[in-house]
Amino acid sequence: MDRSYQTLLLVEDEAIIATTEAELLLKEGYTVIIAYTGESALEILRVGTVKIDLILMDIDLGNGMDGIDTAREMMKFQDIPVVFLSSHSEKTIMKKAKSVNSYGYVVKYLIEDELLNTIEKALKLYAAQRVKKI
Predict the structure, then answer these.
(1) What is the pLDDT at residue 13?
(2) Residue-range domains of the chain with CATH
(3) pTM over 0.90, yes/no
(4) Contact at 8 Å (CB) between 58 and 66?
(5) pLDDT at 46
């Protein structure tokens, strides 16, 4: 899969984590846009100047909207795959994440390959579903 034309929106409130994750994704050939809040992620999608292929969404975004509520709002006006990222693996968090149609859930700080494989699978699944709709 040619990643050079794929743009990911990374929604992460921790600047150091966002930078580290973005560097990994850039190294793998993705274009990455970072939003530090759910509200700014929604604005990026609403403005629509860049085509986003996939959203990597932290569940806990600090003050303001959390990642799950942000994803719910996004899905009201745009069909786009979301993969949740979280440092939490508690059942309550995972259950809440399952309440939103997502393409995966990755626990932060896992092996880089796990994140990259999840992104690739989500993009392929989304593309396959789009073909079925046509």
Answers:
(1) 93
(2) 3-133 (3.40.50.2300)
(3) no
(4) no
(5) 93
